[in-house]
Amino acid sequence: MASKNKHRIWEKISAVFIIAVFLVAILGNIPKAGAGSLTGMWLFETNMDANPSGSGLLYLAFKAATTGVPGTITVTLAAGTTTAGSPTVTTSTCYGANGIFGWLNSGAGALQLPTSTSLTASGGGASFTVTGATSLSNGQIYCFGLTSASAVTNPSTPGLYSYTVADSADSGTNYYAVLTTGTNMAIGVTTSVTQYFTLSVTGGTQALGALTTANIVNSSADTATVSSNAMNGVSLFAYDQYTGLYSPTKTTTISSVTPNSTNLQTVNSNPTPSAFVTTVNANGDTLGVPLTIPTAFNGTVGSATTTGDGLSPTPAVIGYTTVPTYQANAKIYDSAAINADTPITADYGDTVYLVGSGAY
Fold first, then answer.
1. In this structure, are 337 and 278 located in the same domain?
2. Which helix (H) or strand (E) covers residue 325, if one does?
3. Residue 7 included in any domain
4. Which of 213, 304, 312, 211 is nearest to 266 (CA)?
């Protein structure tokens, strides 16, 4: 009887042992809590050459594996790599559908690293750390770039190298290539730009009509338009044939006010003597840098008073720039006023010439 009881007790102990072993086997296959793996990492450099020429920028995207972890990211590159001590870190060009990593996330691109302050990076050797980001979200792709001129300098030996990215909870490893120095990856583009200068005048003949002593007669505006890639700017000049309005039948001239003056001159109605005056104003629809009008020409036109400068066969500057310009416009008016002793004739006239130059 005692032997049977001992046998039953041993059966119970064996059963408990078997169950315990089974549970250990099951529990041994349960995933343990701990760091996860960054499942997606994309790194590229703007210079893949081996040292010494292999220095450039670096951009990186990765997919977070845990939600809520502090966003401090450490990147460890291959031995022999050096990073700038405090490279500039940015996300401004890498995120979103139009960013550097715009092809990721079904074309939606990566996200900016979430941050309440500015992102900073510190390095010096093969590793660098980016700080300033707040918590990350599981499954979300983030990106950043090191944009100092020589943010990363590659190892001196070409090859396929591994790199590691780690945030405060997760890490992952991937690979990047370093190529032979001088590998022909660049496409040279050359071109040239020739000297360019155009000048046109619209408006046609300025017909003043019959002049009287009652008021000044002002022409409608002709518009001069100049464009040039002259690095030091352009100048627009005007000169005339007769220094005024000349009548070949009377051999007399309604003379220009003092030509090439540096001061603005005033002509009133019924002046003594009769006068011819030119006024120039900058046009507001200039597409490039506007013309500066010299003080002597930059006047106003009116029926009782007109201000401007006189023309002669000696060219006078009526507008200029100090840099290249495109379609810089100036309006040019010619005006005349006479007194009672001006000879009667219908053939008063003058020709005004416009020329330009560029300081290349």
1. yes
2. strand 325-337
3. no
4. 304
AA letter at 291: L
How many structural domains comprise the chain? 2
Residue 142 lies in a domain: yes
**What does each C-alpha distance from 100 to 72, 132, 149, 262, 302 come to in angstroms?**
22, 21, 18, 58, 61
Whether the Cβ atoms of residue 243 and residue 321 lie closer than 8 Å to each other: no
d(CA 192, CA 17): 88
60, amino acid identity: L
**195 in Cβ contact with 230 (< 8 Å):** yes
The answer to whether the beta carbons of residues 197 and 230 sit under 8 Å apart is yes
Mean pLDDT on 186-209: 94
Query: Which of the 8 DSSP states describes residue 168?
Result: S
How far, in Å, are 25, 94, 123, 129, 143 from residue 43 at the CA level? 41, 12, 17, 15, 10
Q: Would you say residue 43 has pLDDT above 70?
A: yes
The domain of 51 spans 41-178
Q: Same domain, yes or no, for 84 and 169? A: yes
User: Cβ–Cβ contacts within 10 Å for residue 302, how many?
Assistant: 16
Domain for residue 20, yes or no? Answer: no
Report the distance separating Cα 144 and Cα 253, nearest Å.
Answer: 77
Last residue of one domain, picked from the residues 178, 211, 241 = 178
CATH number at residue 300: 2.60.40
For residue 184, the model assigns a pLDDT of 64
Lowest mean pLDDT among 9-13, 249-253, 329-333: 9-13
The residues with which 60 forms a beta bridge, in sequence order, are 43, 144
User: Burial letters for 132-167: b for 16+ Cβ neighbours within 10 Å, e otherwise?
Assistant: bbeebeeeebbbbbbbbeebbbbbeebeebebebbb
Query: Confidence class of residue 126 from pLDDT cuts 50, 70 and 90?
Result: very high
Do 138 and 165 have their domain in common?
Answer: yes
Rounded CA-CA distance 316/155 in Å is: 66
Distances (CA, A) of 333 to 228, 280, 300, 309, 324: 24, 6, 9, 11, 25
Q: From the centroid of its chain, how far is CA 328?
A: 22
238 lies in a domain?
A: yes
Is-contact 329 282, C-beta < 8 A? yes
Same domain? For 310 and 201 the reply is: yes
